Amino acid sequence: MMKSLPITIDSVRKTYGSYVALDDVSLDIQAGEFLTLLGPSGSGKTTLLMALAGFVRPDSGKLLLDDRDITRLAPNKRDIGIVFQNYALFPHMNVLANVEYPLVLRKTPKAEARQRALDTLVRVKLEGLAERNIAALSGGQRQRVALARAIVFEPRVMLMDEPLSALDKNLRETMQYEIRRLHDDLGITTIYVTHDQREALIMSDRIAVMNSGRIQQIDTPQRIYDRPSTRFVAEFMGEANIVAPGSARRIDGADASREALMIRAECFHLDAKLVGPDGVALEGTLRAKAFRGENWLLTLALDGGQEILVCIPAALASGCAELAAGQRVTAYAPAAKVHAIPGVVA
Amino acid sequence: MLEAYPDSRLARILLWSFCALVMAFLMLPTLVVVPLSFSASNLLEFPPRAYSLRWYETFFGSATWMAALRTSLILGTLTAMITVPLGLLAGISINRLGGKAAVTIQGVLLTPSIVPGILLAIGLFFVLAAQRLVGTLFGVLVGHVVLAIPVACIVLLPALARFDWNQVQAARSLGANWARAIGGIIIPQLQISLLSATLMAFLTSLDESVISIFVASGQNSTLPKLMFLSLRDQIDPTIAAISTLWTVIVVVVVLVVTLRQKS
Fold this sequence. Notes:
The complex is a heterodimer.
Chain A: E1 7-16, E2 19-29, E3 34-38, H1 45-53, E4 60-65, E5 68-69, E6 80-83, H2 95-105, H3 110-123, H4 139-151, E7 157-161, H5 169-186, E8 189-194, H6 197-203, E9 206-211, E10 214-219, H7 221-226, H8 231-236, E11 240-243, E12 248-250, E13 261-264, E14 280-291, E15 295-302, E16 307-313, E17 328-333, E18 339-340
Chain B: H1 9-31, H2 33-37, H3 54-61, H4 63-97, H5 99-114, H6 117-130, H7 137-162, H8 166-173, H9 178-189, H10 191-207, H11 210-215, H12 223-233, H13 238-262
Helix pairs in contact in B: 3-13, 4-5, 4-7, 4-10, 5-7, 7-10, 8-9, 10-13
């Protein structure tokens, strides 16, 4: 296992004219951690990645690799492996030459470079393809070559810029697990950029959700999903209902929260018995219902006029088929799944 | 008619005739010199009454013509060797810079190809005179490089625009400095365009006469300069022999380069 290093991003700011790409971003990444920068396009996640790679120079702030300031260090001296969105393989070299390239630059003896490149190809399951031309590879194989090339020189940090966005859905899921497995095998500090929240949830130790040049929240996937700190995070991570305090009542009659509540669509039940007495109840009129295979999606209009989405697993939804639009429906959510978003009024 | 019956005989005959006419129009002025060069007469006459190789003998036997040929070939080679690296670096900078600055720089670089050649030659004469470089090979070389840079840029810029610059970033992240990234990643993939640029720079210098007339002196006259001067002084078929050889050389070089690109 190679030695991996922690990264400190300290109030990094980057502007393009009047456009603020990174707005005083600070972030600590532990050695060996798999951290995902998640956000919509234009949120600054790729700019932050490129600043770490050395292709974007911050206006102010510091980037530390371990204790070393790399803010002004040339990209070729950072020893950071990067997997690009379009792979950026060298089409005039075959697979082996692509993977050997960083070793050749480091003046590794020929035989050793070849052996390490071949070993790395085995690691990414490309044994036997060493002599292939890049043009003759499938998308998934190119992805693996890009991975092999980025890890063969044992970098201390790996950066990945939406590496799976060009692959079809099945291959993408396979590669998600393989990249994570590779990370666990190598123990290398990895920063992964994506706009796909499912991908972020599946792969990461921690997720930093970014929007308009700022980190909105940084936490474990589960906490990001269940306990979003802002409305943006709540809505970006999945089907979130954010309801005004007045719309929800406690089942046991106690005082409800004074802050807006976030309840995920799939956390509701239609049966009060499945929810403890400290849960909340939301009553409304059924507007629409849709059968989605593994679940039913109900749209309820609360009395305040707000619409919420209620998702009931098909296995627990014996009564859903009989519900008709216009009917009064009460949805219950257990206390553990009701999250008050601090400072947000719906 | 052509659209309605694209395969009709008449349409094809018309199309081929038209193409043949265009080809003839393009090539005849060049080709008419060839029979003249094999004339046995002392005058340029068409068609020649008798044939001989005497004017080729005159050309190869003349120390002045041979010196001019040597000068032209050396100048062409040096021009290409200096222009192409400069043009490549300029092209890369323009491409990476982007925005208004890039457009401005590109405009400035392309001016020598827009400004009338005679103005450029007069300007260059004064600049070189101030440096006491008039009459030197170096002076002519400077002029030819100035003329060839826009040509090289025009060939290289579209190729650089199509280039995937992520590859350079990838190479940099893998440990390559700028020089290694250019040498190992950009140049091998731009081979064809670089070859074209080299050829065009070489031919620009080979073909250039105005700057040579102003700046080159007796012992380092270029071939086009000497041709102009000899046309003024005496008209004999030596000129035709040189032109024929010239055409053959250029056609061979262009063919070789084009065929190499095809394979």
